[in-house]
Amino acid sequence: MSNILQNMSTADSTDDISVCANCGKEGSDNMNTCNKCKQVKYCNAACKKKHRHKHKKECERYVAELHDKELFKQPPPTEDCPICFLLLPTLASGRIYKTCCGKQICTGCSYAPVYDDQGNKVDNDKQNECPFCRVVAPKSIKEVVERLKKRVEAEDPIAIHNLGIHYRVGEHGFPQDHTKALELWHRAADLGYAEAYGSIGYAYYWGEGVEVDMKKALHYYKLAAIRGDVMARHNLGNNEYRAGNVNRALKHYKIAVRSGYSKSLNQINEMYKNGRGAGHATKDEYTKALQLYQEYLGEIKSRQRDQAAAFDSERCRYY
């Protein structure tokens, strides 16, 4: 940070007096502030314009540092399963979305035996009830869609995003409509759903319903990654690696590995095995990534989840 920024910070913290970064004149809290970095102030618009060419590089560097600090921060973990209270797996293969109640339940609890209040095992095969709300599971795709629509009407971001997936693919009676899918994903993203940002980024990356726009694709991938979308995080790592930014790629991959994305672990392994000298992953980096992945597996492991995975590896994502 430049001396100007440091002096400004010192002045603000000690005397509550703002100093113009251009002319040095002291002013009030109503001074004109830089719109980007918010760190320097000017006594008027003329001083701000005059100082722009001197401040531009420092401003851009400071803003980039703040952006990277946010981008490379490990996102908060996923929520807990509402039944077993263990951390929900990051990947969709380890959790199921229930259109009856809008809950995401781990596959272990979804496929676990049901017991009555006396501890006796209940034959749940006939009813196949939701383990959370006890509503009988839908018996047809039509019923699944009807429940999904109700969740959409209730402004459920996961349901809105999944409806967008149906329009993107053109399945379950919905026409293939990339524009409609993108509209739904924006709606889900506005509600804070990380995967919706990732889907928007995917649309711009491949030009589905929009023109191919790598700048916008990376923008939405970053928004998704910051909120915890591991696939978007992995894609950012791939983009940095292709651009030759190995250190930035490794940062992305490690964050994704800590969130349980095995493809990122495999990529670090390849970078280690194929590396020649500087610019590739070292043995220590791969070892550290492997430890991060094992930590994640320990946090989500349960006997019921292991049994569910062995029982059916091709289960539906939601119903």
Question: Could you write a compact summary of the structure shown?
Answer:
This protein is mainly alpha-helical.
Detailed description of the structure:
- By secondary structure, this protein is mainly alpha-helical.
- It has four domains: 3-69, no CATH class; 79-137, no CATH class; 140-225, Serine Threonine Protein Phosphatase 5, Tetratricopeptide repeat, CATH 1.25.40; 229-306, Serine Threonine Protein Phosphatase 5, Tetratricopeptide repeat (Alpha Horseshoe).
- The protein contains 13 helices and eight strands.
- It has helices at residues 3-14, 45-71, 107-110, 141-153, 157-169, 178-190, 194-206, 214-226, 230-242, 246-258, 262-274, 283-300, 303-311; strands at 18-19, 26-27, 32-33, 41-42, 95-97, 104-106, 114-115, 121-122.
- Strands 1-2 form a two-stranded antiparallel ribbon. A two-stranded antiparallel ribbon has the order 3-4. A two-stranded antiparallel sheet has the order 5-6.
- Strand 3 (32-33) and strand 4 form a beta hairpin.
- Helix 6 packs antiparallel against helix 7, helix 9 (230-242) packs antiparallel against helix 10 (246-258) and helix 10 runs antiparallel to helix 11.
- The longest helix is centred in the N-terminal third of the chain and has 27 residues, at 45-71.
- It is globular.
- The protein starts with a helix and ends in an 8-residue tail after the last helix.
